[in-house]
Every structure is written in structure tokens, then in C-alpha cells.
Amino acid sequence: MSWWTMNGLDKDDGSRRMEDRFNRIAEAGFDGINGFVPAPEEADNWRKLLNKYGLSFSVNAYPNSAADMAQFLAKAKLFGQIDFINAQVLTPFLYGQSAERLISEINALSKEAGIPVYIETHRGTITQDLIRTVRYAEHIEDLRLTIDFSHYVVAGEMHTVSEEAETHLQKLLTRTSSIHARVSNGEQIQVDVGECGEHPMMRHFERWWRSGMTNWLNHNNLDRPFPFICELGPPPYAITIDEYGDRRREIGDRWSQSLVFAHIARSIWKDIHK
């Protein structure tokens, strides 16, 4: 479960708010939290709660350079208990060999630190362009990705998915190391898919999630967990009905939608992991 998603779900600002979030995540059947490296003064409490609720932990990084990534990895190692790092590499105007060199440098730092780093497919980053990212996959042997195709669906206005787009997307799915669950309709980055996933775009995302999981299973130790993260952003990332005002009144229910995604993911996993 994404810690970012939990923002604004609970209205209680009391002292137990943080532990209440942990309890809510664990009771819903989630196995871990994807968040951020805790501040030094909060680190002990995070370790205590992760252990108490039996939750794994991964974090997000936003490097602009290899030096940024090295610095972040040092903080991650100091905290410990971090299964992997999801990286949004904030260099959207870097491309070609320069971009490939930066990704390769990040991969080398990851191996040296002993913490996996997965590059997220994300707008406004080094992977913002679908075709560009396919080129990375063709040129960088050890490229591992966090798949979030909502960014490519909205950037490409994919109300329908062409055969050409599907071919490119499937190439990236061979590099799946984790998945972020969010559905775009080709116009908005994050939409409510209905209580049972009735939205027509859900069928495409289910297919991609299945393909990513299958590719991962074919190339990894089956004893390792596969990271599937329900990551629905709070307002103003989420669509609101007060766009002219505070942008806090959401159209959808992020918690219930997260449970829908988790149910779908578990069903797919159970089906392919026989």
C-alpha cells in the first residue's frame, strides 16, 4: 500500500494517527508499505511499527543525477529494512546515450549498495516518453522497471490501445520488477474504475498487470514476493469536484478503489501462480 495514498483518508489528527494507518493497512490484508525514507527522528518509530505489524517496506527516490542516487542509497542503507527503491529520475529532457549512461550508473550504484532500484515509467521523468523508454529496454540489459502505464495512457490519449502501442508496452513489461496500480482513461491520469472494476479501461490494465506478473515469475525466484503497489494520489492529484476552490472534494474513494485493485491483483496472481 502506498503511504502517499493514505494522505487525507483519516481525519483524526491525534497522536495515534500514524499507528492507526499501519493498523488499517495490515487489517486490509496488505503486506507492505511503499513510502519514503523516514526522518532520523522518526526512524525508530517506523522500524517498531513495521515490525509490530509485519509489513515490508520500500521507498521512493527522486534523483537528478548519479550523485543524488548515491546519497539517497546511503540514507536507505542507514535506515535498513528497505526491500527496494522506486526511482523517478527527474531528468525529462535527458535522452539518448546520456540518459542510458545515467540509468546504467544508477544500476551500478544499486548493485554496489545491495538495494534494488527500479526505474518508474512516469511523466516528467527520464522515462516520460514510451518510445524513448523502449529504446532503454533495447540498450540496457539490466534495466528493471516499476510499471505504471497510466502515464503512457494519458500522455498518448489512449482511449483505445492500438496494436503499435501494445507492442511497445509489452516490450517494457518484460522488464517488470514492480507495478503501481492506477488506471487512466486517456484523458485523466487517475479515474474511479467502479466498485467491481467496471470501467472499460480496466480490461487493458488487467492484461498489462497479468503480463508483467507473468514475465516476473518467469525470471525470478518464486520464493520472493512480487511488489504490487496500490498507489492512488490524494487531491489535487485525484479528480475533485471543487476544481475552482480548495480542490479537496474527491470524486472517487481512494481506499475502496485500492481494495478493488488489490482484489484484482490477487486474483491474477493466484491464476498465474499455480
Automatic annotation (TrEMBL):
Lineage: superkingdom: Bacteria
Annotated source species: Paenibacillus whitsoniae
UniProt keyword list: Isomerase
SUPFAM superfamilies: Xylose isomerase-like
Name the UniProt record assigns to this protein: Sugar phosphate isomerase/epimerase
Location of the Xylose isomerase-like TIM barrel domain: 23-167
Molecular function per GO: isomerase activity
Pfam families membership: AP_endonuc_2
